[in-house]
Write a structure and sequence with these properties.
68% of the residues lie in helices and 0% in strands. It contains four helices and no strands. The longest helix has 30 residues. The chain is rod-shaped and about 70 Å long.
Length: 106
């Protein structure tokens, strides 16, 4: 009876030991994971920057280089979302809507 209890206890301890080893990350694994996350973030920020540059200044002297760089990053990070379009400003002589406070003053 004692031998079977010892065998069961040993098996349980070994299972727990192996399970906890699988969950613990070594310092090298943690550094590698942190480095991977850092590089992924850097690539995403670069792709977003190039997309903003192309959205705002599609005809700039750097646009061709930005397109080339963005095309190289796209397989790594996916296509960045275009920056939101700004609403167009109304010309100065545009009449105000009939119910507005500015229209009622006149």
């Amino acid at each position: 009876m004692l031998k079977s209890f010892q065998s069961v206890l040993l098996a349980a301890l070994l299972c727990l030991g192996f399970a906890s080893c699988g969950q613990q990350k070594t310092a090298a694994q943690k550094r590698a994971e942190q480095e991977k996350l850092w590089r992924a973030d850097k690539l995403q920020r670069s792709a977003k920057f190039y997309q903003i540059l192309l959205d705002k200044y599609p005809d700039s002297k750097n646009a061709a280089e930005a397109r080339q760089s963005l095309s190289g990053l796209t397989p790594l990070v996916g296509t960045p979302k275009p920056s939101p379009a700004k609403p167009a400003a109304k010309p100065a002589g545009t009449p105000k809507p009939a119910g507005s406070a500015a229209a009622q003053k006149h």
